[in-house]
Amino acid sequence: MTNLDQDWPEPIVRVQSLSESGCPVIPTRYIKPPTDRPTASAAASDAVNIPIIDVHGFCLDQDDALRDTILRQVSDACRNWGFFQITNHGIRAELLDDIRQGWHDFFQLPVEIKQGYANNPRTYEGYGSRLGVQRGAILDWSDYFFLHYLPPHLKDHNKWPAAPPCLRELIEEYGEEVVKLGGRLLKLLSLNLGLQEGYLRNAFGGEDVGACLRVNYYPKCPQPELTLGLSSHSDPGGLTLLLPDDQVAGLQVRNAHKWITVKPAPHAIIVNVGDQVQVLSNAIYRSVEHRVIVNSNKERVSLAFFYNPKSDIPIEPAKELITEDKPALYSPMTFDEYRLFIRMRGPQGKSQVESLKSPR
Ligand SMILES: O=C(O)CCC(=O)C(=O)O
């Protein structure tokens, strides 16, 4: 039986070293079944993109008309897409550029240095190359670095990269900004659901929310048509705030059975609803499957910041959203229990949140 109290079930191979070996074919462990390959899905029109919302620095108090427009746009995006990009969000453009560059530089360090941060399945903290511990699983074409930002007792600078210089400071500053942004977005979502503005944040544990960062590194791939940088999944947590690569597209979002390739707006942050918001909203908002494709001539870096509930409090549908017609769809579960699934099995579409629906 697999469990998380062990090391990885097979020796870890860094995808970056496979890429840099110059081999023209990828190992079979990375070859996806035909139905999961990027080329198997109907290509959506290039004109389609996820909604882009100018949140006007969230100046919600000053102007009622503007506030109503932003609320409506966010509401439509949550209901129709589960994914949207925000511009004018208040995070300095230089900070976004610097932190992306800092992480890019980290992945260019010699492998021996990065190995010093190698992670394990118990905490995921550090430098990793697989999600899930199932022996023989088909792997994704990416490496990553995972770290905790909140709660404060889990934050440990010694586990963050010491090089390049300033990366730790950049992570600190970026984390502070993104946590503020996550809090503001939860207010918008609460209001749009007809709840008190502080409802979702309180349900997430108030001052004790969790936050962690996964930086994804997708090396060049000699056979991108056979694999994925990250398999289809919905995010297990609350809200995800993603800083995409500004040079290379790769994120695809499932919408009406088609995969839409996201075209990032300059200095935008991509926001998506996670499974915990699906549970709290009693599926009025739904987390959405997404995946990442890779390519043969460009590497790609993205920063996924996960804004999560405190890990040991029960998360369940808001009482206000339960009616006779729509009883609670989910039983209470803590995020610690919930995230065991992805940590054991790796990315598996929306199978977890769908399987948890209470029998009716
Ligand atoms: O790299 C991306 O654009 C998306 C990353 C992602 O979905 C994740 O880290 O969960």
Overview of this protein structure:
By secondary structure, the protein is an alpha+beta fold. The chain has one domain (15-354): Jelly Rolls, CATH 2.60.120. Helix content is 26%, strand content 19%. It has helices at residues 15-20, 64-80, 93-107, 111-115, 167-192, 199-203, 275-280, 335-338, 340-345, 351-355; strands at residues 52-54, 83-87, 126-128, 143-150, 210-218, 230-233, 239-243, 251-255, 258-261, 269-273, 290-292, 300-308, 314-315, 333-334. The strands form three sheets. The protein has an eight-stranded mixed beta sheet with strand order 1-2-10-7-12-5-4-3. Strands 6-11-8-9 form a four-stranded antiparallel beta sheet, with no helix packed on it. The protein has a two-stranded antiparallel ribbon with strand order 13-14. Strand 8 (251-255) and strand 9 form a beta hairpin. Helix 2 (64-80) crosses helix 5 (167-192). The two termini are 31 Å apart. The model has no long low-confidence stretch (mean pLDDT 94). 2-oxoglutaric acid (AKG) is lined by residues 214, 216, 230, 235, 242, 244, 250-251, 290, 292, 302, 304. InterPro entries: DIOX_N, IPNS-like_FE2OG_OXY, IPNS-like_sf, Oxoglu/Fe-dep_dioxygenase_dom, Plant_2OG-oxidoreductases. Keywords: Dioxygenase, Iron, Jasmonic acid signaling pathway, Metal-binding, Oxidoreductase, Plant defense, Vitamin C. It holds the Pfam family 2OG-FeII_Oxy.
